[in-house]
Amino acid sequence: MNLRSLLRRQNSEGLPKLPALEPDDALGDDRVDERLERLLTPTELDMVRRHRV
């Protein structure tokens, strides 16, 4: 039996939204990098930086 089927699903409206950053915002890029450094391991951070467009 799949136990996930017993759980109630959350609507996406109830989840917090990520802040939108302007693509030309230099400070925004710094904030994104700082946030990524806090959330990711060094290996994951290197992978994100390598594949960023």
Secondary-structure blueprint:
Elements: H1 26-39, H2 42-51
How would you sum up this structure, described in words?
With 53 residues, this protein is an all-alpha fold. The protein has a domain at 23-53. Helix content is 45%, strand content 0%. It contains two helices and no strands. The chain has helices at residues 26-39, 42-51. The longest helix has 14 residues, at 26-39. The mean pLDDT is 73. Residues 1-29 are annotated as: Disordered.
The percent range for strand residues is under 5%
> Describe the biggest sheet?
none
Termini separation comes to 43 Å
Strand-pairing-aware structural class: mainly alpha
* Whole-number mean pLDDT: 73
Can you give the helix content as a percent range? 40-55%
Radius of gyration, CA atoms, in whole angstroms = 17 Å
Structural shape: elongated
**How many beta-strand runs?**
0
Q: Which consecutive residue ranges, at least 5 long each, have pLDDT under 50?
A: none
What order do the helices and strands follow?
HH
Summarize, please.
With 53 residues, this protein is mainly α. It has helices at 26-39, 42-51.
Key structural traits:
mainly alpha, 45% helix, elongated
